[in-house]
Amino acid sequence: MTTFSYITFLASLTIFILTSTVRSCPASDRAALLAFKAALHEPYLGIFNSWTGTDCCHNWYGVSCDMETKRVADINLRGESEDPIFQKAGRSGYMTGSISPSVCKLERLSSLTISDWKGISGPIPACITSLPFLRIIDLIGNRISGEIPADIGRLERMTVLNIADNLVTGRIPRSLTNLSSLMHLDLRNNRIWGPLPLDFGRLPMLSRALLSRNYISGTIPDSISKIYRLADLDLSLNKLSGEIPASLGKMAVLATLNLDSNKLSGKIPDSLFNSAIGNLNLSKNSFQGYLPDVFGPRSYFTVLDLSYNNFRGPIPKSLSQASFIGHMDLSHNRLCGRIPAGPPFDHLEASSFAYNACLCGKPLGACQ
Asked: Which of these, 20, 45, 117, 198, is most buried using a 10 Å CB contact count?
């Protein structure tokens, strides 16, 4: 080999090495991922078998990197997936262990999805709030315990926070209302207690707030009505008390309001029955008094459930003026009088009116 050829070979080799290095993930990201893997045990599918070699940006299952920086941007590990690995095994995933704080060393991490593994336990690492680019935290369907990190509000880019179906406890951090980009909040089926933050309405981008099956107490903050984009609010199966703020019925896009199985009382605001809400479940509370006779053409309900309360008096005749009522349940109250004729009453079953004081007429027995 001539001197010129040798120099050319060295130059090409240097360029190749430098190019390969640039295209590979940094050693620090690789080390963080391996430490993250070491804290987990997945015995059936072998999803971590691909986590070998120096380049964690290439063919590491569930890992993807930013095209420009070559830093790890996403961890996407789902225990219920249509991936061929799951189809070949003929089963969903099961994983034990915990989420290692080493994940916090992935400084460019944008999304962290570790969902539906059923056996992952331990707390959410508090250091996760130091990741400035984090947009998605999805940990649904595990056995994660401990509290939501107190300074979760530092994650200014957060759009999705989903920790449903876990064992998370403690209060909802006050700083959570600083998440000005949050669109989807799912805290269902945990052990969260204490009141909702009074300034819950400081979440301007929120479209879904799902907080059912917890131990949330106190009253429903009136500030919720300030969330213009909120379409789905589920606070069912908690320990909420007091009255429903009338302002909820004036929200522009709120379509689903589920408050069943709480300790709410007083009268139901008239505004709820002539609003954008099409799925209204207020069952199993302590509401009382007469049902408002305020239904009209703007009343459109796919579901209207007012069962298991203390309503008395007649069924409002104006219900016949509603533009649509698909399913309605007025059972287990103290209603009395003749059930109005015509729609929507002509397609409802007797169970929708059962266990009241003295209702009569179709579909119940004839009035005396």
From this structure: 117
Amino acid at 51: W
The Cβ-side half-sphere exposure at 359, using a 13 Å CA radius, reads: 26
- Rounded to whole angstroms, how far apart are CA atoms 275 and 314? 22
CA–CA dist 117, 78 (Å, integer): 7
Which tokens hold the place of 238? Answer: 């908690």
pTM: 0.91
CA–CA dist 265, 267 (Å, integer):
7
pLDDT (tens digit per residue) in 262-301: 999 999 999 999 999 999 999 999 999 999 999 999 999 9
20 contacts: CB under 8 Å, gap ≥ 6: none
Q: Note whether 147 and 168 are within 8 A (CB).
A: yes
- Reading the block at residue 310, the tokens are 């203390």
